[in-house]
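Annotated sample (chain length 84).
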Amino acid sequence: MLEIGLDELQVLNKLVHPESIEQIIDETTLTEPVIIDIVRQLFHFGFIKLYSETKPVPLSFDVDQIKTTYFQLTAKGINEINKN
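Output written by the structure step:
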């Protein structure tokens, strides 16, 4: 189970609408490596999902292209924001 801290909440709050890692970097005070690590953990534990304008939405992403991948909250992520 992933413990959601202030950094994770900061990233979750930016993903209400589909956002890329680059946009999160621009909108938070966290560093790029920290954001990438947080996004990978949030994705792994089901707090966020991949967003794609094309259907079907892929179930995984290429780590080398993480900066161009879009992410969005899942219901689990929204519940976590609402708890805090």
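Annotation: The mean pLDDT is 88.
Annotation: The chain has four helices and three strands.
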